[in-house]
């Protein structure tokens, strides 16, 4: 089941970097845990029920064999780099060649798996760590990268192993016989920059490198284009060190983009939100966040259905291949043949009650436009691809008018602020992000065609990094910002609701702030209340309220809440219908957030147990049960793992 999120792809838009939107992987049950080398004998044996789509061609088999190169070759390791099977060996000759297993785990003897285990032991999630590594160092600028890009002699190479440094990149180029002028790569990034002496060198490098596989990835080569304001270096920027004359950055409309083609079937996948090479010239925020917006809504639904079908078919194929010999294929895999390879019947995509301006939460990045103007909007691509340019949310149909107005107000404020904009390349600066969260009045879906009139509360969360800035000056600046927001919200016609302004101090370098990043609420100057805008007292906990299935939900600044409240209502109702609930049902709401699913279904079951790792979301869930007089729900703050789940099952 999937509710349609109009115009967006099924994957989250590029701007959605909120940690609260991130779903941590749940521990796999034992039968899904990584296979050991001993399992591979079974894998080699011919399956009784062969995959109908597998090809007799050996090379193709290697390409699609789910365990190909997913374990390190112990012979290769023991004999210090030699293995009689050479290239045909099914095991990986070294960490670089190693691929993840079908269940997304890594060979437990690999350095990567050990590193992840260390991170887990240390309480991190691995993702944070990788993000941090990715951004610890800025792309180096200076002599090497500079001049060549203008002449088109600089290229960026995407999909390089994260752990590579410039030395690894240079060695790799040498080993492949590529002549180049300079090569740079920061550890933790997947992008490297290579400059060449001549067009011939560029051409032969392209021939050799484009599409070449390293581990499980294929290299992509893109142009490096200087941002226009870097070239001119004449635009006044608040912090001169942010935009060094020599800085070479990848233009947001450059040729770099993630693969938009499903490598298995050559058809676009859910992830294909990035336009292709030629389209990406002149890519807009609208293209990036709502790549389906050019289609009529009915076509968008069809497109989503098709891409979901591909994903589900792939799931069946992978499950079939992953099932070891001797273990019977699950019934749903066997039955999938009768329904065109699908694991279950796909009912279709449910329409959203609201097609435009449906998002109740927008996270706007703060950065520079392609012309070097301080901008509040959406990144024009992925930082991993080297894109840092931001564009205003012009024509983005999913963004509400209110959110757009606040982005514009903030952008105007930043153009006069003496505090610097966050620089994603050197991880320095002050202003980082603006999140606009809206709360609605209770009302029926049919009455909400004009979303503006139903919004009664707005919370603004401004993310800054206070490192290195004077506390007093920071406070003055933030007070000034609050005054600006409130007076300009009041001056709008009709005046914009403003319920809370929260400042989040995020000192780290990854995009998503950790749950413990300090938050403080700013008082909203009094005059706003006279114009009908609610102004909380300083120190009062900032929160907004929304409604799903006639229940009120109180939401704290960082807690997750479905971004399309009305579509969520439809989705939850259907989940309840399908679940066959009754008074004897014990309903586990795993990763419950603010408790929305469990609470909306509580009246149809005996008891609800919600589990959620974000502490403030758990207290929101408890508060929400109270507000709505629901007594049969318990919420537990914990990271979900199989062990905990089993314990709870026995305990309750
Ligand atoms: C996409 S939200 C869904 C929340 C809720 N079910 C809803 O529909 O509104 C996912 C939630 O899962 C939580 N979460 C992610 N990984 C978790 C884990 N391993 N254990 C517990 N909670 C987790 C996040 O904090 C977030 O609140």
UniProtKB/TrEMBL annotation:
**Signal sequence coordinates:** none
State where the C3H1-type zinc fingers lie. 67-96
Polar residues bias: where?
1-22
* Span of domain C3H1-type: 67-96
Give start-end positions of Basic and acidic residues composition bias. Answer: 34-49
Query: What's the name of the protein?
Result: C3H1-type domain-containing protein
Where do the record's region annotations for Disordered lie? 1-63, 239-284
Q: Which domain of life is it from?
A: Eukaryota
| Source organism per UniProt | Coffea canephora (Robusta coffee)
- Family the entry assigns: Belongs to the class I-like SAM-binding methyltransferase superfamily. RNA M5U methyltransferase family.
Q: Where does S-adenosyl-L-methionine bind?
A: 562, 612
* Domain annotation RRM: ranges: 157-221
């Amino acid at each position: 089941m999937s509710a349609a999120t109009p115009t967006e792809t099924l994957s989250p838009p590029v701007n959605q970097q909120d940690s609260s939107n991130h779903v941590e992987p749940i521990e796999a049950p034992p039968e899904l845990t990584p296979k050991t080398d001993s399992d591979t004998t079974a894998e080699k044996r011919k399956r009784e029920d062969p995959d109908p789509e597998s090809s007799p061609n050996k090379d193709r088999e290697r390409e699609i064999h789910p365990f190909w190169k997913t374990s390190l070759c112990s012979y290769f390791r023991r004999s210090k780099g030699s293995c009689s099977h050479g290239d045909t060996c099914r095991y990986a000759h070294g960490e670089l060649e190693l691929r993840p297993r079908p269940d997304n785990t890594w060979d437990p003897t690999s350095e990567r798996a050990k590193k992840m285990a260390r991170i887990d032991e240390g309480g991190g999630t691995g993702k944070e760590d990788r993000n941090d590594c990715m951004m610890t160092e800025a792309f180096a600028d200076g002599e090497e990268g500079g001049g060549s890009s203008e002449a088109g002699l600089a290229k960026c190479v995407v999909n390089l192993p994260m752990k590579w440094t410039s030395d690894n990149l240079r060695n790799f180029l040498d080993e492949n016989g590529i002549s180049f002028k300079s090569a740079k790569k920061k550890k933790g990034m997947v992008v490297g920059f290579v400059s060449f002496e001549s067009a011939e060198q560029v051409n032969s490098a392209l021939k050799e490198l484009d599409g070449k596989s390293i581990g499980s990835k294929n290299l992509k080569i893109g142009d490096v284009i200087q941002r226009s304001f870097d070239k001119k270096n004449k635009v006044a920027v608040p912090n001169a060190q942010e935009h060094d004359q020599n800085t070479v950055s990848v233009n947001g409309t450059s040729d770099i983009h993630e693969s938009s083609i499903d490598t298995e079937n050559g058809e676009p996948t859910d992830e294909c939100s990035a336009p292709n090479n030629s389209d990406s010239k002149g890519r807009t925020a609208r293209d990036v966040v709502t790549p389906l917006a050019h289609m009529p809504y009915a076509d968008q639904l069809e497109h989503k259905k098709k891409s979901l079908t591909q994903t589900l078919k792939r799931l069946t194929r992978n499950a079939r291949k992953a099932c070891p010999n001797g273990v019977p294929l699950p019934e749903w895999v066997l039955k999938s043949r009768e329904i065109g390879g699908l694991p279950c019947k796909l009912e279709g995509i449910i329409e959203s009650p609201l097609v435009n301006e449906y998002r109740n939460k927008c996270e706007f990045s703060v950065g520079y436009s392609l012309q070097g103007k301080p901008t509040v909007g959406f990144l024009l691509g992925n930082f991993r691809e080297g894109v840092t340019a931001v564009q205003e949310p012009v024509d983005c149909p999913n963004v509400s008018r209110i959110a757009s107005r606040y982005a514009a107000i903030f952008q105007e404020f930043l153009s006069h602020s003496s505090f610097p904009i966050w620089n994603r390349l050197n991880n320095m600066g002050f202003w980082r992000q603006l999140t606009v969260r809206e709360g609605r009045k209770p009302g029926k879906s049919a009455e909400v065609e004009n979303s503006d009139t139903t919004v009664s509360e707005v919370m603004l969360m401004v993310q800054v990094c206070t490192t290195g800035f004077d506390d007093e000056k920071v406070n003055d600046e933030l007070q000034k910002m609050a005054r600006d927001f409130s007076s300009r919200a009041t001056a709008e016609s009709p005046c914009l609701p403003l319920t809370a302004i929260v400042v989040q101090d995020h000192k780290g370098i990854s995009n998503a702030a950790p749950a413990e990043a300090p938050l403080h609420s700013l008082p909203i100057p009094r005059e706003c209340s006279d114009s009908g805008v609610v102004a909380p007292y300083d120190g009062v906990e900032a929160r907004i309220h929304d409604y799903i299935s006639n229940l009120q939900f109180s939401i704290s600044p960082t807690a997750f809440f479905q971004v399309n409240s009305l579509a969520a209502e439809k989705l939850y109702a259907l989940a309840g219908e399908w679940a066959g609930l009754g008074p004897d049902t014990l309903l586990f709401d795993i990763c419950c957030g603010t408790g929305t699913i469990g609470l909306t279904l509580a009246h149809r079951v005996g008891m609800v147990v919600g589990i959620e790792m974000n502490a403030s979301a758990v207290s929101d869930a408890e508060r929400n049960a109270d507000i709505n007089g629901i007594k049969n729900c318990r919420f537990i703050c914990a990271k979900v793992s199989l062990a905990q789940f089993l314990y709870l099952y026995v305990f309750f």
